[in-house]
Design a protein that fits this description.
Blueprint (H helix, E strand, L loop, with lengths): L14 H6 L2 E4 L2 E4 L4 H11 L4 H11 L3 H25 L6 H12 L4 E7 L2 E7 L10 H12 L6 E3 L8 E3 L12 H20 L1
Antiparallel strand pairs: 1-2, 3-4, 5-6
Helix pairs in contact: 2-3, 4-5, 5-6
C-alpha cells in the first residue's frame, strides 16, 4: 500500500513494465502499490494512460463500486501475467501463448476511435477511448505490451540486478549495458556494497 504523498516510479521505458513495477519489494516482502481502484486510476493518470478528464470520471464513478473492485482484481491478474512475461523475456525465452492471449483479450475489449485534430499549424491523428468500463484503464497497458512484443526487441527487457528488487525495464542505453532499475536506489546500494567488500577484503 502506498503512503500518503508517495509517487509511482516510472523508470522502465515501457508503460507495460512500469505497470508491472507497481508491485515492489520492501522489508523482505512485496508491497502492492495498487491497493484500491483509486490507486489504479492515480497510476493511470500519473503514467499518462489516462487523461485528467478520464481520471476525474473514473475515480468517483467506480472507486467505491463493486465494478471497480472487480476491475482492480482484473488489473492485478493482468499484472501477474505481464510479470511472468517480463521474466521470460529477461531470461531470453519467448513469450508464452497465455501472455499473448491475455494481451489480446484486453485489446479485444478496447474501446475507441481515431480522430484528427488541429495542433498548432499541424493536423495530428489521435485515438480517443471513452471509458465504458472500469477495466478500460488497462487498454493502454495492453497496447504497450503488444507493441513491445511486436515492434521492439524483447531481448532488451531486463530485470534489475539487485537481488531483492522486483523491477523490470526496457534497456534503451546505447550499449545496452544498463544493470539497475535506478542508479539512485539499487545502483548506489550495489556500489556501496561492492566498496564495503573491497574495504573489508583489503583490511
Amino acid at each position: 500500500m502506498m503512503k500518503p504523498g508517495e509517487s509511482f516510479p516510472f523508470l522502465a521505458n515501457r508503460l507495460c513494465l512500469d505497470f508491472v513495477n507497481t508491485e515492489a519489494a520492501a522489508g523482505g516482502g512485496r508491497v502492492d502499490r495498487l491497493a484500491s481502484y483509486a490507486d489504479l486510476v492515480r497510476w493511470g493518470r500519473a503514467s499518462g494512460a489516462l487523461t485528467v478528464a478520464e481520471a476525474r470520471e473514473a475515480g468517483p464513478r467506480w472507486a467505491d463500486a463493486p465494478d471497480g473492485e472487480r476491475a482492480l482484481e482484473a488489473a492485478r491478474e493482468f499484472r501477474g501475467v505481464l510479470r511472468a512475461l517480463a521474466e521470460r523475456l529477461a531470461a531470453g525465452r519467448p513469450a508464452p501463448a497465455e501472455a499473448l492471449e491475455a494481451v489480446n483479450a484486453v485489446l479485444r475489449n478496447r474501446p475507441g476511435f481515431t480522430q484528427v485534430a488541429r495542433e498548432g499549424v499541424r493536423v495530428v491523428e489521435r485515438w480517443l477511448a471513452p471509458l465504458r468500463d472500469p477495466a478500460d484503464v488497462l487498454a493502454p497497458v495492453a497496447l504497450s505490451a503488444a507493441r513491445m512484443l511486436a515492434e521492439d526487441a524483447p531481448a532488451l527487457v531486463r530485470k534489475c540486478e539487485s537481488p531483492p528488487c522486483l523491477n523490470f525495464f526496457y534497456d534503451v542505453t546505447k550499449n545496452h549495458a544498463r544493470r539497475w532499475c535506478s542508479m539512485e536506489t539499487c545502483g548506489n546500494r550495489a556500489k556501496a556494497a561492492a566498496f564495503y567488500r573491497r574495504k573489508v577484503g583489503g583490511a
